[in-house]
Amino acid sequence: MTLLELSDVSVHYGRIQAVSGLTLTVNEGEIVTLIGANGAGKSTTMRAISGIRPVSSGSIRFDGEDITKLRADLRVVRGISQAPEGRGIFPGMTILENLDMGAYARKDRKNLEPEIEHVFELFPRLKERKSQMGGTLSGGEQQMLAIGRALMAKPRLLLLDEPSMGLAPQFIQQIFRIITEINKEGTTVLLVEQNAQQALSRAHRAYVLETGEITKTGTGRELLADDSIKEAYLGVG
Ligand SMILES: Nc1ncnc2c1ncn2[C@@H]1O[C@H](COP(=O)(O)OP(=O)(O)O)[C@@H](O)[C@H]1O
Ligand SMILES: [Mg+2]
Prior knowledge:
The protein is an alpha/beta fold and 237 residues long. It has a single domain (2-91, 150-233), classed as P-loop containing nucleotide triphosphate hydrolases (Rossmann fold). The chain has ten helices and ten strands. The strands form two sheets. A six-stranded mixed sheet has the order 6-7-8-3-9-10, with helices on both faces. Strand 9 and strand 10 (213-219) form a beta hairpin. Helix 3 (95-102) runs parallel beside helix 6. The longest helix has 16 residues, at 169-184. The radius of gyration is 17 Å and the shape is globular. 42% of the residues are buried. The mean pLDDT is 93. Bound molecules: adenosine-5'-diphosphate (ADP) and magnesium ion (MG). The site of adenosine-5'-diphosphate (ADP) has 11 residues, from strand 2 and helix 1.
């Protein structure tokens, strides 16, 4: 089943067109990755999906309904949750308080214990530090917290914008392993990455974005084997 569908979406910042006529789908249960160079429009696409940035034309459908003009907070209620680029955690709040904030859109937020426990199972490091201020966490820990906070909304679609950015190698492996685990538990994932090697090997399907346009799509495996992808994004050839 198609969970998310972008049709001919364009996004502008003033007169700058950051995304041009982008069409993509994400099916329920998939990990789909969007790869592309710096400035290609990946984060802008994510912002359009989460509703932080309006589209200038085109449409976005989620779970069979048009959400093109739906407010960002109401998209969270529908089941779209984003761990934004640059992490965006609350530095002056503890880990537990940050996790609580992730559940703000839920109607059943009285009992958050099961989700908090679930996040702590995925990220034991956060459990050890649950009363520590977000701003004092290492980069890798902040990234874990950002993903954990997004999961607190119990999303159907999790949007991850460069989760591996700036992380030490052992954290990169761990984050990608956890993304696969979250997906296996039933959450659909749209993953934006510059680490194309890892992203393509984890994803069911992928899209390549170049200066605001999709230039290639296929399974993760197909794109990993594609010569032009190897040359441009995998540092071989
Ligand atoms: N807030 C903004 N104001 C103006 N231009 C922006 C803004 N954010 C991004 N852009 C421009 O939009 C294009 C796409 O950016 P972005 O979506 O952040 O790319 P990516 O995430 O792939 O690196 C770039 O040319 C960038 O300079
Ligand atoms: Mg970006």
